[in-house]
Amino acid sequence: MKKVISLLILISIGACFSCNKEVLNKKPLSIISDADVFKDPALINAYLTQIYYDMPVLGNDCNANGPTDGDGSWHAFDINDVSDESFPQFRDWNPSNAFTFKYGNLNIGGGVLDWWGYNTVREINQFLEKLPSSPLPADQVKSKLAEARFLRAFCYFSMVKRYGGIPLITKVQDANEDQATLFPPRATEQAVYDFIISEIDACASDLPEVVSADNLGRPSKYAALALKSRAALYAGSIAQFGTVELNGVVGIPASAAKAYYQASYDASQAIIKSAKYALYNADANKSTNFRNIFLVKNNSEVIFAKRHDNANEATGGNGWGVDFFNCPRPQAWGRGLYEQAYLELAESFDHVDGTPGTLDRVAIQNKLMTTDELWANKDPRFFATFYTQNTSWKGNKLDFHAGIRLPDGSIKTDGAYNGIAATGDQDYQGTGIGVLKYLDESHDNMAGANSGWSTSAQDWLIFRYAEILLNNAEAAFELGNTADALNSINQVRGRAGIAALDNLTRDNIHHERKVELAFEGQRYWDVRRWRTAVHDLSIRWSGIRYILDGATGKYQIQIINNVDGTSNIPQFRQENYYLPLTVGRTSNNPKLVENPGYK
């Protein structure tokens, strides 16, 4: 989908309930009035396309637009780096807010993952009000209205999962309206989720069953159902595990949990029974197959994706920054490996026979090993998700070794030994584990037309079929339908090449989501909605070092504890289950009560 940067129309004035008459009464600076826009089919399409561009949350929950703020840069990884998956590892720079906020520094000032999307909601509300009187044929009006309602539901979902209850604004506000209308209070969290679900129910059937090739990147009926599957599952979890506070502004009554799980289950079932999608299974090698889910465009698993091309976002293209930042060195100014995975996540990937993948950390540090021995019989998804010592890359093997073990047992960390450099060419001071998911080995970020940050052409998968199976499993389990839940989980495990489960627990479901959906922007929201984040995100995590044995070519393994740094202690506090609204917003609208715990 191409961005429409030059669209000159008055589509957003500011936060809809903090605007003022002086601003609104000024003449538009644009050369095309909004009245003219809705008389011209081309401008109508451009307006709708611009809304996508104004929704950075479509790109891995980014919180801003532009080549230094959206998914064209490092902010695409913030959602992973505030979780227990990874941390940003440019040690002398660390531009990401995630690096600060994961260590107990999220306070009333906010900053991390913040997205108060009312400018975009206003754009959508205007589109919904103006389009019916346009010259477009009735069938196009109907489908475009449905598309806009889907986008509005997505905006509200993006906000409610951040803040809890928020104002529900469904029409364009006018500065001449009374103060009660211009400055609405927060709706309850339950009311916002109910609105999202009702919008999906209203618009899904008016969206196409199959999106045509020239409209890839726009929602189908099943993209809407996927949003319902996810949103209703979140609401069910919050009702089951959360606490109601501020008279329901945050939290959902426990009595509502079953109905939300049923809504999620029904939406997942509609997608499954449609037979429009299937787990990607084109490659015999299970690791290659899993990796290609994210590299083969528009494959059988993709329900809804943010489309990218390989043109630099800063010069008008629609690329993103995953290859530039996350590829091994020499990418990203010779640094590479911006996002580095924790050893604990790597250990979460079990063995193919289903036994736990947790390393015996004492045993492995007391013998020499090959990397094949260290990672023997791991879940094939492990090798498609991470790269580490001896991972194949561009015809070579990556080298993270952090010293050479000499015959006398000492470790040489500079110079060379027998013609072998004492240290490898990769970042051996981080966790020792890079993120392979989404990376394209054929892509060159270093020169020519592909130079610059945001030039990766890989699409970002917003909804894919495996998630629907996992949503179905969780909702079915919480509704007491264990057999259906087990079947869905085992479909995902079977595609991965790992042993089926004989029985199922809630922990099994949570674990399968952690592994299958790693680095897909899901983990942070999952542990928040399950209310396990205070424990899961407040752990001192580890990394791994490989010391090359000069005599055998094997490795002495070292576990690096507290890999974030001795002064960086991960801490997720109880109030962090919701982001703060911030003083700026509560000052603009006195009816906006701040979330509990922020002062």
TrEMBL record:
Transmembrane segments: none
Residue intervals of the RagB/SusD domain: 301-598
Cross-referenced InterPro entries: SusD-like_N (IPR033985), SusD_RagB_dom (IPR012944), TPR-like_helical_dom_sf (IPR011990)
UniProt KW NADP keyword: no
Main localisation: membrane
Domain of life (superkingdom): Bacteria
Signal peptide residue numbers: none
SUPFAM superfamilies: TPR-like (SSF48452)
Keywords: Cell outer membrane, Membrane, Signal
Localization terms from the record: Cell outer membrane
GO CC list: cell outer membrane
All copies of domain SusD-like N-terminal, residue ranges: 117-232
CDD domains reported for this sequence: SusD (cd08977)
Family in the record: Belongs to the SusD family.
Name under which the protein is recorded: Starch-binding associating with outer membrane
UniProt source species: Mucilaginibacter pineti
